[in-house]
């Protein structure tokens, strides 16, 4: 489904080399593909952020969020590479936001996944959650795609790594967390862009 040899360095938005820019918040996003039932273009999982959110309120985005200190610590413990913390954050956020376990081995059973998701929402560290569930990280399931680091002086700047992954054949149905996001959809890229152009949904620039 995904050409793992592809790298989109040409899609990276550079920081412009301006040392006066404020520090950026590290973040990670996971673009999940699944085959369309009608044989059409692949569908992407997108979530609608709650209108109360400080960033991208009401917009359709891919699952993701900040890279937390715990993600860096876990990456160091397992000896992950330079982008290991971002990969871990993308996996963790996708479980929290959509209930989809990508990058885990073995894949947790539905009841175990529900417990993992509840524990993450309760503030338990991802390392503890993984250990309690008896699963390990398989970071190679994520394919690096692009980086977005805008060169402006807004108060909130994210330096985001985008990863790609295919939906596992036995993956559970995605479900909203009803806190950060209020709706999720599977749709082709073309249909999302058409709906955005028609004003039926909001899409922020890096997502587009």
Write structural notes for this entry.
There is one protein chain. The protein is α+β, with helices and mostly antiparallel strands and 208 residues long. The protein has one domain: Nucleoside Triphosphate Pyrophosphohydrolase (Alpha-Beta Complex), CATH 3.90.79. The protein is 26% helix and 24% strand. The chain has five helices and nine strands. It has helices spanning 69-78, 84-98, 110-121, 126-133, 189-197; strands spanning 25-34, 43-49, 60-61, 64-66, 104-105, 136-137, 143-148, 158-166, 181-188. Strands 1, 2, 3, 4, 7, 8 and 9 form a seven-stranded mixed sheet that branches. A two-stranded antiparallel ribbon has the order 5-6. A hairpin with an 8-residue loop joins strand 1 and strand 2 (43-49). Helix 3 runs antiparallel to helix 4. The chain is globular, with a radius of gyration of 17 Å.
CATH homologous superfamily placement: Nucleoside Triphosphate Pyrophosphohydrolase
User: What count of domains describes the coordinates?
Assistant: 1
CATH class category: Alpha Beta
Specify the overall morphology.
Answer: globular
Strand content: 15-25%
Helix content: 25-40%
Structural class: alpha+beta
The total beta strand count reads 9
Let me know the largest β-sheet.
Answer: 7 strands, mixed
- Helix tally? 5
Give unreliable regions as ranges.
Answer: 4-17
Q: Write the element-wise H/E pattern from the N-terminal end onward.
A: EEEEHHEHHEEEEH
Measured distance between first and last alpha carbons: 21 Å
CATH topology (fold) name: Nucleoside Triphosphate Pyrophosphohydrolase
CATH architecture: Alpha-Beta Complex
CA-atom Rg in angstroms: 17 Å
Mean pLDDT: 87
């Amino acid at each position: 489904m995904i050409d793992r040899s592809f790298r989109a360095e040409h899609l990276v938005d550079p920081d412009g080399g301006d040392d006066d820019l404020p520090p950026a918040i590290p973040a990670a996003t996971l673009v999940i593909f699944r085959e369309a039932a009608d044989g059409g273009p692949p569908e992407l999982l997108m979530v609608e952020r709650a209108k109360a959110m400080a960033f991208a309120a009401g917009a359709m985005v891919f699952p993701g969020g900040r890279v937390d200190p715990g993600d860096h610590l876990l990456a160091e413990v397992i000896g992950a590479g330079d982008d290991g913390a971002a990969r871990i954050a993308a996996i963790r956020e996708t479980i929290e936001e959509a209930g989809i376990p990508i990058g885990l081995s073995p894949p947790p059973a539905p009841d175990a996944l529900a417990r993992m998701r509840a524990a993450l929402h309760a503030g338990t560290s991802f390392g503890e959650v993984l250990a309690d569930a008896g699963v390990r990280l398989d970071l190679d399931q994520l394919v690096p795609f692009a980086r977005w680091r805008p060169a402006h002086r807004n108060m909130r700047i994210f330096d985001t790594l985008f990863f790609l992954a295919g939906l596992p054949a036995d993956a559970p149905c995605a479900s909203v967390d009803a806190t950060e996001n209020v709706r999720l959809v599977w749709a082709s890229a073309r249909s999302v862009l058409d709906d955005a152009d028609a004003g039926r949904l909001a899409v922020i620039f890096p997502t587009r």
